[in-house]
Amino acid sequence: MAFHHRLKELREQQNLTLRKLGEKAGISYSILVSIESGRIIPSKDVALALAIALRIDDRESFLTLTDNPSPL
């Protein structure tokens, strides 16, 4: 699964808007829109901040999704 698809799935499971997730992770709304739309792949640091904000237990698996970008 592509990072942006997994991010959206996890965010929606927690009923978070992009703005709320951005506040929790310290990432701007515009960057999150670009990540979730698949236009950009986040750095490991940004992905880790998102994993922490989303309270993901298996962070390593989440971070590995940034290594394999899928074509749009």
Automatic annotation (TrEMBL):
<feature type="domain" description="HTH cro/C1-type">
    <location>
        <begin position="7"/>
        <end position="62"/>
    </location>
</feature>
<dbReference type="GO" id="GO:0003677">
    <property type="term" value="F:DNA binding"/>
</dbReference>
<protein>
    <submittedName>
        <fullName>Helix-turn-helix transcriptional regulator</fullName>
    </submittedName>
</protein>
<dbReference type="InterPro" id="IPR010982">
    <property type="entry name" value="Lambda_DNA-bd_dom_sf"/>
</dbReference>
<dbReference type="InterPro" id="IPR001387">
    <property type="entry name" value="Cro/C1-type_HTH"/>
</dbReference>
<dbReference type="Pfam" id="PF01381">
    <property type="entry name" value="HTH_3"/>
</dbReference>
